[in-house]
Amino acid sequence: MKPFPRAEISAQALKDNLARLRQIAPNSRVMAVVKANGYGHGLMNVANCLTEADGFGLARLEEALALRAGGVKAKLVLLEGFFRQVDLMTLVEHDIDTVIHNEVQLEMLENASLSKPVTVWLKLDSGMHRLGFTPEQFASVYARLEACPQVAKPIHIMSHFACADEPDNSMTVDQLAVFEALTKNSPGYRTLANSAGTLYWPDSQADWIRPGIALYGVSPVMGDLGLNHGLEPAMALVSQLIAVRDHKAGEPVGYGCYWYAKEDTRLGVVAIGYGDGYPRNAPEGTPVWINGRRVPVVGRVSMDMLTVDLGKDAKDSIGDDAILWGKALPVEEVAEHIGTIAYELVTKLTPRVAVCLE
Ligand SMILES: *Cc1c(COP(=O)(O)O)cnc(C)c1O
């Protein structure tokens, strides 16, 4: 018997999504973003499926080291760079690229003595104002990196979009213009596009795209679906009905007696809760896919269980699958009900959920 709850990860969907993104951005290399445990899909699962990627993007040094320990030879890029000077030696030893986005990192690099130069992606703040050097600082920082023997040449350049997931927001056009003006003659690689940039702003695809969520088959845009772009959900979150009960009109269910049945019905209890990473604030009506249809969550989500209204004539049985999201029930739709984004749902699953590569 398969364990439950489990996140079933489709190797084929991951591969197909990478191929699809190559079609969408035919002139760009792909830096597959696999931070946060491959967006909850399992870091090594994803890396092993995406052997065709040109490189991987990570948020933390530990993630990059885990890939190297797992035998991954591809280019690895720390998207926030290193945080301590000693980490520079580790980068050199394991051939890991780093982003440089602030003065402190720059000084650590200038003062380091390394056995080999490190490959650097200089981060330009083109308008998001989270990380990166301002357009005013850019030329002088670039010149310092050029002059720094610890830096491999050419220097690559990166920026990140604030609003690319809003197809009507001109912020992205402005960011592109800032980036283009400052970087158009630079000899290294240039990269801006996350998933939203890749899908919605083809002008931003540049030398490398950096898709995360799209690789997992999910759209970054509210109201859109990965399926609309030829992408396929890579994760199905699956559990089971562990009780099916007759329930009378006027009776409540669960903690706080939060919901009362308007009419006689049958309730199902699904073995998943906030202890698995399914949000406690999922409101009444959040859909769950059981035996080929959507049924609504009713009552409070508890730590290990949630309840659904199966309907008066329901034929569902204990042991039937309950799919919290997957191909038939896109995670984007579930996220919208819960008032969050699909990114948060897939990355927040807890270790109690078995991650099964299929
Ligand atoms: C997380 C991240 C990405 C990927 O973003 P998606 O929206 O998941 O495609 C790309 N670039 C940087 C710098 C990131 O931090």
From TrEMBL:
<keyword id="KW-0413">Isomerase</keyword>
<comment type="similarity">
    <text>Belongs to the alanine racemase family.</text>
</comment>
<comment type="pathway">
    <text>Cell wall biogenesis; peptidoglycan biosynthesis.</text>
</comment>
<dbReference type="Pfam" id="PF00842">
    <property type="entry name" value="Ala_racemase_C"/>
</dbReference>
<feature type="binding site">
    <location>
        <position position="130"/>
    </location>
    <ligand>
        <name>substrate</name>
    </ligand>
</feature>
<comment type="pathway">
    <text>Amino-acid biosynthesis; D-alanine biosynthesis; D-alanine from L-alanine: step 1/1.</text>
</comment>
<feature type="active site" description="Proton acceptor; specific for D-alanine">
    <location>
        <position position="35"/>
    </location>
</feature>
<dbReference type="InterPro" id="IPR000821">
    <property type="entry name" value="Ala_racemase"/>
</dbReference>
<protein>
    <recommendedName>
        <fullName>Alanine racemase</fullName>
        <ecNumber>5.1.1.1</ecNumber>
    </recommendedName>
</protein>
<dbReference type="GO" id="GO:0030632">
    <property type="term" value="P:D-alanine biosynthetic process"/>
</dbReference>
<dbReference type="GO" id="GO:0030170">
    <property type="term" value="F:pyridoxal phosphate binding"/>
</dbReference>
<feature type="active site" description="Proton acceptor; specific for L-alanine">
    <location>
        <position position="255"/>
    </location>
</feature>
<dbReference type="GO" id="GO:0008784">
    <property type="term" value="F:alanine racemase activity"/>
</dbReference>
<dbReference type="InterPro" id="IPR029066">
    <property type="entry name" value="PLP-binding_barrel"/>
</dbReference>
<dbReference type="InterPro" id="IPR020622">
    <property type="entry name" value="Ala_racemase_pyridoxalP-BS"/>
</dbReference>
<dbReference type="InterPro" id="IPR011079">
    <property type="entry name" value="Ala_racemase_C"/>
</dbReference>
<dbReference type="InterPro" id="IPR009006">
    <property type="entry name" value="Ala_racemase/Decarboxylase_C"/>
</dbReference>
<dbReference type="InterPro" id="IPR001608">
    <property type="entry name" value="Ala_racemase_N"/>
</dbReference>
<dbReference type="Pfam" id="PF01168">
    <property type="entry name" value="Ala_racemase_N"/>
</dbReference>
<feature type="modified residue" description="N6-(pyridoxal phosphate)lysine">
    <location>
        <position position="35"/>
    </location>
</feature>
<feature type="binding site">
    <location>
        <position position="303"/>
    </location>
    <ligand>
        <name>substrate</name>
    </ligand>
</feature>
<dbReference type="GO" id="GO:0005829">
    <property type="term" value="C:cytosol"/>
</dbReference>
<feature type="domain" description="Alanine racemase C-terminal">
    <location>
        <begin position="234"/>
        <end position="358"/>
    </location>
</feature>
<keyword id="KW-0663">Pyridoxal phosphate</keyword>
<comment type="function">
    <text>Catalyzes the interconversion of L-alanine and D-alanine. May also act on other amino acids.</text>
</comment>
